[in-house]
Amino acid sequence: MPTYPPGSAERKAIDEALVEMKKQMPFEVPCVINGKEIKTGNKLKQLTPDSVNTAPLCEYHAATPELVTEAIEGAVKVQKAWAATSWYDRATIFLKAAALVSGKYRNQLIAATMLGQGKNVWQADIDAIAELADFFKFSVKLVDDGYKNQPLITPDDAVNRIEYRPLEGFVLAVSPFNFTAIGGNLVTVPSILGGVCVWKPSPMATYANYLTHKILLEAGVPGSVIQFVPGDAPQIVDQCLSHRDFAALHFTGSTDVLRSLWTKIGSQMTTYRSYPRIIGETGGKNFHLIHKSADIKATVIHCIRSGFEYCGQKCSALSRLYIPRSLYEAGWLDEFVKQTKEIKVGPVTDHVNFTGPVINEASFDRILKLINQAKEEGGKILAGGSGDKSQGYFVEPTIILTEDPHSLTMKKEVFGPVVTAYVYEDDKWAETCDLIDNTTDYALTGSVFSNDRAALAEASELLRNAAGSLGSGTNDKSGTWAHFSRFVSARTIKENFGADPTDFRHPSNLA
Ligand SMILES: NC(=O)c1ccc[n+]([C@@H]2O[C@H](COP(=O)([O-])OP(=O)(O)OC[C@H]3O[C@@H](n4cnc5c(N)ncnc54)[C@H](O)[C@@H]3O)[C@@H](O)[C@H]2O)c1
Ligand SMILES: N[C@@H](CCC=O)C(=O)O
């Protein structure tokens, strides 16, 4: 990945792309149904969260119920033909999409992700280029490997094979704002297998998602295979979930939303042709557990990057921090606070800013409310604690020290630049692992920092269920065949070519 140092060609190129994009804002984003761009006239806005008083990044046309019906019907109609397209052709399309992401559309995708989702160039590149292109390429490799999972034994008089059929009906992909790549992956996984999708993007990632869709179509995905349907989330999603041909929900976003959609699907089971599948990843409450043997300098840097890059708006962002008393007394927290106060926060177009805005006003207000509640509960604010939304939604990187390991911000997902620290006694390593395991229902990600192998092994054992998506989704891990397997129905086919039978009786039936 390019590193964008001052004076580099890559920094110059991205600066030019940003200037060009700003000149053209607001872009007009249509619905794209059966490959046709459709403007409904019902326009909504995607703002630039770091400069809210300027022109929006885009105005997008919200899909009407009639268009959603057209999208579903168009997708279902093309499904058999797409499934019959050879694996070679499907694979090549996604490899071409990867090349378009890292080549022709590179700077445009980065600029759209920076301006629309408030990422600085480093964060935008790892998301919209590195991860998105990887998703496309890994998908080809993983499906290729998956298709090779065939019966182990082939007898002399028969051939057995397994065919991995895509789901009948359409997949509804509902994507979050915080990763351009995730939207791309949610539609790629079902469609690379020969399935069809209706894609409802996040309102706060509409433009980058529209570009991703454009890339997929340019690479050769037929227009009806992935339908781009922005607009009112509950209206579009409810309509899709109420359709007889609804085959699966592919979701990434918050826990409450997935739970409500799951409940809706469950309550409508008699509507469907089949048993819809639900594949969803949701919130997290990432812990960092520091052992007394850990290096202070390195762990402080890891915690700063994990907690505050992209304003903590990652499901995997550090949120609860466990520091041993000995390192606390050796100045671990002082160093963490000192460096946190050095973080530059501001518009993402100024590269010195390590972090930018949070995504919108609702998020800004929610985060500051949580900080205030933490204060009222007795939490001590060691850094940050406030914000300013006059120009953009800027929240100061915030460190809260708590004496209560079950306090609000140790339990609830904040999804903002807020780290709550708790000091544990060095000799309570196992007890602290149990505490981490039992503090929240989330169990998405976590890290243990130690130079003591025995402590690592013990933590790995005790924290087995505290990370790895358990409790945070259906745990169909991206980057594994297990994820793809949720979007196929296996069919076993046996061809016999042994001698024809001459008697229906077996030897065991003879008198
Ligand atoms: N586990 C992961 O891999 C992962 C990755 C990224 C984000 N996340 C989680 O996503 C959340 C942040 O993303 P977000 O703010 O975009 O999440 P969100 O739940 O607000 O929105 C996700 C999607 O659901 C749609 N949606 C929202 N309300 C809806 C409703 N009532 N009915 C139908 N659709 C609705 C949105 O328009 C969006 O497309 C965090 O909780 C984060 O932890 C998880
Ligand atoms: N791949 C992402 C996960 C996305 C969560 O929001 C990461 O950077 O950890």
From TrEMBL:
- Which PROSITE patterns has this protein been placed in? ALDEHYDE_DEHYDR_CYS, ALDEHYDE_DEHYDR_GLU
Aldehyde dehydrogenase domain segment(s): 52-463
Q: Which SUPFAM superfamilies match?
A: ALDH-like
What EC number(s) are associated with this protein in UniProt? 1.2.1.88
Q: In which pathway does it act?
A: Amino-acid degradation; L-proline degradation into L-glutamate; L-glutamate from L-proline: step 2/2
Instruction: Give the annotated active site.
Output: 281
Question: Which is an annotated Pfam family here?
Answer: Aldedh
The record's keywords, sorted A to Z, are: NAD, Oxidoreductase, Proline metabolism
Q: Which family does it belong to?
A: Belongs to the aldehyde dehydrogenase family.
**Name of the molecule in the record:** L-glutamate gamma-semialdehyde dehydrogenase
